[in-house]
Design brief:
Blueprint (H helix, E strand, L loop, with lengths): L1 E2 L5 E2 L10 H4 L7 H14 L38 H12 L5 E3 L5 H9 L1 E11 L5 H4 L2 H19 L4 H15 L2 H5 L4 E7 L2 E7 L6 E7 L17 E6 L4 E6 L4 E3 L13 E6 L2 E6 L8 E2 L9 H19 L8 E5 L3 H8 L10 E2 L7 H11 L1 H17 L6 E2 L2 H9 L3 E7 L5 E5 L4 E5 L7 E2 H11 L3 E5 L10 E5 L2
Parallel strand pairs: 3-6, 8-14, 14-15, 17-21
Antiparallel strand pairs: 1-2, 4-5, 4-7, 5-6, 8-9, 9-10, 11-12, 12-13, 16-22, 17-22, 18-19, 18-20
Length: about 500
């Protein structure tokens, strides 16, 4: 160990100091007691002059010694861009907890309310039409459309001034969704996505929405209105019947599914059987019939075709009544060959058979194909609530309970006064409403921070228990954009 010009000792390089005062390299001005304290500390973390204790961590000699210091930036000094790999690492860390969460295709009011009450600096609503089958599914067209939408969305967010980190944080779950093969192979008619920072929910919709991207401080929910379970509660039943098969379905305005009914005859042979014994023909009704019967003879004892069909259809009707229809008042639509329809109606005990039937051979139709035909046939059934609400509106047209002025209708929606709200399905009104001060501002074009007040009126009407009717322009009261029938 050597001395410098001032007489201080220096330890050997690369090794810890020894346990002597000289080895500590303490200036002569330091009191002896302090030197002894330093010596005790040194003894604690060293074993001898040449070896470190096992619990001592050695920092790399080339470490950044200013890492924890408050470094002031020189404005004239150029900054080095953030390393891209590090930036992606930060983004992945921030988005790790945000996973895509699927909602049901038919939303309950409580879930709709959650979406309606969610606010953030950047809320993104995306609606896309999708495909359930066909070439579009095989060629991944829906997945490609969504990928292009995410890329377009990134550009829109950049234009709004969001940082790259925030953009990646918001859209990251969407790129995760692109890897979900099961999802893209099993789409429905539409896809709704709701994104914000640390928030990502989506739903496969039975309805087919228009392609939409909406960015604001709350979600755009008007396209969801037909998918609300509370507004889609009207349903009907469909009986597809032929000699070889009987199938029973439950449907609403957007979806149809076949119901499994264990005792439902699967064709006429499940009820009526024929056996040939020598030259005699034996007719038997199966145990599922009203009563077992045998008819012996040559020709004369055999029921004719119409009687056989009546026995079969009576058993179908009896089973449906027992299992489902006795507790229902929903319409029953019959689908089958034209001569079968009156036979079924003549033996059925159900009083709500839809007067117009689906005529044709639907035995080999898929459920989606059959639903398209049935939905068109039942269109008057689904229009009935709108027609009844319009009649009530016109009956009170000369009273203060009706209005087609947005300045009156929109505040009334916020305060729970609206029983029936009628809106043009393609109309937007931009502005804002101050609930506390009852001040409404409407603008001819969308301005920064504006909401679609038609959308807000729809949401507030639903949250307050009112009914919303989205209609084509030609069906709106007085051709207005918005009208309401008030509760009081």
């Amino acid at each position: 160990m050597g001395k410098d010009r001032e007489g201080r000792f220096h330890p050997k390089k690369g090794k810890p100091t020894d346990n002597t005062k000289e080895g500590l390299g303490v200036p002569s001005t330091v009191p002896v007691d302090d030197m002894q304290q330093d010596e005790d500390i040194t003894n604690k973390y060293t074993t001898d002059a040449d070896e470190l204790a096992p619990n001592v961590r050695v920092k790399h000699p080339n470490r950044n010694t200013s890492a924890n210091q408050d470094v002031r930036k020189d404005p004239a000094r150029k900054t080095t861009p953030i390393n891209k790999n590090l930036q992606h690492h930060i983004t992945d860390k921030n988005t790790a907890a945000t996973e895509p969460e699927e909602m049901p295709g038919l939303l309950y009011k409580s879930l709709f309310e959650q979406l309606a009450n969610y606010t953030s600096d950047c809320c993104i609503s995306v609606y896309l039409p999708t495909h359930k089958a066909g070439m579009e599914v095989n060629e991944n067209q829906d997945r490609i459309t969504f990928k292009n939408t995410l890329q377009r969305l990134q550009t829109l967010l950049q234009q709004k001034g969001l940082s790259q980190n925030d953009i990646e944080s918001i859209t990251h779950p969407g790129y995760q969704l692109l890897t979900n093969d099961e999802l893209w192979r099993n789409m429905s008619n539409g896809l709704a996505i709701f994104m914000a920072n640390n928030y990502f929910r989506y739903a496969r919709l039975y309805i087919q929405p228009k392609e939409t991207i909406h960015i604001n401080n709350s979600f755009y929910l008007r396209p969801l209105l037909p998918a609300l379970a509370d507004t889609s509660s009207d349903h009907f039943y469909l009986l597809m019947i032929s000699k070889q098969r009987a199938a029973f379905f439950r449907a609403d305005a957007f979806y149809m599914e076949e119901l499994t009914i264990e005792d439902l005859p699967n064709g006429m042979n499940d009820v009526v059987h024929f056996e040939e014994k020598d030259d005699n023909k034996l007719f038997r009704m199966s145990d599922g019939g009203a009563a077992a019967a045998n008819f012996h003879g040559i020709g004369a004892g055999k029921p004719d075709e119409k009687e056989n069909l009546a026995l079969y259809m009576k058993e179908v009707d009896r089973t449906l009544w027992k299992e489902v229809l006795a507790r229902e008042q929903a319409p029953l639509l019959i689908a089958g060959i034209d001569y079968l329809i009156p036979i079924y109606k003549s033996v059925s005990a159900y009083q709500h058979i839809w007067p117009d039937a689906l005529i044709g051979n639907f035995e080999h139709h898929s459920t989606p194909m059959l639903f398209v035909a049935a939905r068109e046939k039942m269109e008057p059934f689904f229009k009935k609530p709108h027609q009844q609400a319009l009649e009530a509106y016109y009956n009170k047209l000369a009273t203060p309970l009706t209005s087609s002025m947005p300045e009156t209708v929109i505040p009334a929606c916020y305060y729970g006064k609206v029983a029936h709200l009628f809106v043009d399905e393609d109309t937007h009104m931009w502005g804002s409403f101050d609930v506390q001060n009852n001040q409404l501002q409407l603008h001819a074009t969308q301005q920064e921070g504006d909401d679609c007040m038609v959308d807000k009126a729809v949401i507030q009407t639903i949250l307050h228990g009112g009914q919303v009717h989205m209609l084509p322009k030609e069906q709106m009261p007085k051709g207005s954009d918005m009208a309401a029938l008030m509760r009081y």
